[in-house]
Amino acid sequence: MFLLGFAGSCSVRFVKRCGSMRKSFIFVVLASLSLGCGQSNDLTVANSTDISTLDPFGMFSRVEISFADHLFQTLTFINREMEVEPLLATSWERLEGDTTWTVHLRDGVRFHNGEVFGAAAVKYSIETIYERNKNGETVGGASVAIPSADIIRIEIVDDLTVNLTTNGPKALLPFYMSQIFMLPPGHYAGKIDAERAEQAVGTGPYLVEERIRDSHVSLIANPDYWGVAPLANRVVFRVIPEVSTRIAELETGGVHIITDLPFDQAALLNDSRGVHVAAIVGGRRVMIGITTNGGNAALKDKRVRQALNYAIDYDAISQGLFGGHVERMSYMFNPPFNHPTLEAYPYDPDRARALLAEAGYPNGLELDAMDTPLGKWIQDFELAQTIEAHLADVGVTLKNGVRTYEWGNYRSKLLSYDLPSLFMQGSGGEFELLTEAADLTITSPSNFYRWENPEYESLWVELQTALDAERRMQIGYRMQEIVHEEAPWIFMHIQPDTYGVSDRIDWKPRPDELIHFWNVTISELAN
Amino acid sequence: MARYIAKRLLMAVFILWAVATIAFCLTFLSGDPATLMIGDHWTSEQIDAFREHMGYDRPLLVQYGDYLSGLTRGDLGVSVRQQVPVIDLIIERFPATLELTLAALFLIIFVSIPIGVLSAVRRNSPADRIAMSGALFAQSVPTFWLGIMLILVFGVWLRWLPVSGRGTFAHLLLPAITLATFSTARIARLVRSSMLDVLGQDYIRTARAIGLPNWRVYYVHALRNALIPVITMLGIEIGSLLGGALITETVFAWPGIGRLTLQAIQARDLPLVQGVITFGALMFVVVNLIVDLSYSLIDPRIRHE
After folding, report:
1. CATH at residue A154
2. In this structure, how many other beta carbons lie within 10 angstroms of the beta carbon of residue A239?
3. For the whole prediction, is pTM greater than 0.90?
4. Residue A380 resides in a domain
């Protein structure tokens, strides 16, 4: 009431009084405020989402795993080339019987709280994550590794040696070990969820300095780090959900890397001074799944499925929807397992019509529908609509057109195989052959296409136990050739990841979307 | 009066119950909550274990009963993603939202009321036309666009103010202006029309006839009587602002309740979604209750019988 009355009484007088003095006042205020802006000397990344917890086993997203990698470490590490290299384990070997591995641990490593890292910590960490997984609790980035690795016994040989026994031969155990963070039992044992979520104690090169939820988390270099000291002393993970704001912060020097940069903005950002765009082919495949069994009988014939692939003018799609930044997928597995010589299906509508005619559909074919979630993958709905038009050009029509669903409902449809002839599907994100290859085996819950191929199945059986790296690679290549020929889906693309990067830092993106700062330097900007 | 308050309190409880029930039902409208919340690669065993862990395998009525009894104790559940109690997250974000709300409210009151009074007093003058055209423009401008334009001008081009985040007073300016713009325009138009109404009343003519100075006529006699609809509107504005300014907080990366809401939805963190919806309703109900009760203070003719 007082405020209202006072505001009213100010009205007429205010406009009469304010002259040149007002201008000077505004200038002084703004000049003093502007001290709060300017370039920061911290190494800062702006993401669209927050770090939701400090519990490493509660971290799901790539943003969270990137963050966790600065604080927590794993026995093995996936490098930029997506190869496994030692981290807290110095070496490992498989014992006789193929199911037990001896892992040798790094000496002289301490956790942030001073606890010594060793075999006891390995046993505790692996047992904890298996226990939490069994209890239905979130296990974050390890949710794939846990059921896949299937470690059934952890035996402490000495302080720096453990034997891990798996349920059956697991050739990729070194990869799975890169997904399980090592925790100090002295700190974490007996802690409840809420306590684990508030404190991070690992062996990593950084310590948490400050965490303001939904604003930022800042990390400070760990003075007692066992390895090479990180180049940047302080790194900050900021949350800026709006892309325009992220770009503005990058342009004004407030942050050094921005993630999730849309294609249309990337072109504009490249013209800005002091920043550049960094793009890399990521690891997430997007395709139009085909119900090859149990749906429309025509789709059991691989010639029809190939025809659907030839009907798509992907260059036009790339130009129209993705600014020409995306190429059609030719292979199925992520690097380094991608087939080097397979070529993407070209746009050949005549061949599509000929294949349809050969398969007994000279006058075209009517399918029931194409389902897609809305907003799950880049331009998913627009992509589905365009594909519908391209298919119609060769005589393949959709009786009920493109149907959209909220992701939760769509996910339920996928998991219950409640799918029409065609459906949008995305998968991947891993750079590990076994998990990726598993998706198309007939027993996999991710084989939404209900596709079955005897040769693929036998290769899968061999892949699970094959030790020789070259042989594994050959198996992977052959599997991709089969999928390319059999076409259980309409090949689309692998989603690229685009970043805005300050010219002040020397940083290159990784294909797995992880951002690591410990070997990044920041320089003064030359004006 | 006591009876009126009791009646209003009862109604507030009813509204909160209704909102909480709707929030609960929404959880189950968008598919199986367990599959919504889990990662892309979980096995069906993991999903089943998670469903059991979260209690989604229990009968719906049992879940509803637990949810309501938790609410009565101030227990809004635990955030699935952040693994901390929802109420703690809301309490943690509330100061940021309150700060932004108060700053915006300050701007709304000190800009809209003088403009509204001026326009009414100088009806159809160039000043009135400019003010009302400006108000119309401010009401028509989408909030997100305005926010981005302010960032572009004051953050990127002039480099006077920080682009985003919360910290210093400078960080508060752009989001507060963005948040206040629409409401300022709306309130200014309302003050103008309400003042025009009052200025035509007999008691204003009498006040002038007895020789009172203009400012006294306008601010003591006219404005006070014109404030009832303005306060009602301000109550609605404050109620919704305290529930979180989703767009403004998102554009400026302001860590308030609005961001928490969006974050909860994006992460499919259903207990958190339910919590922020219920909290938003609580803020709205409380502020409007206070507004209703304040009528009699402003206008002694109003009595709550």
Report:
1. 3.90.76.10
2. 24
3. no
4. yes
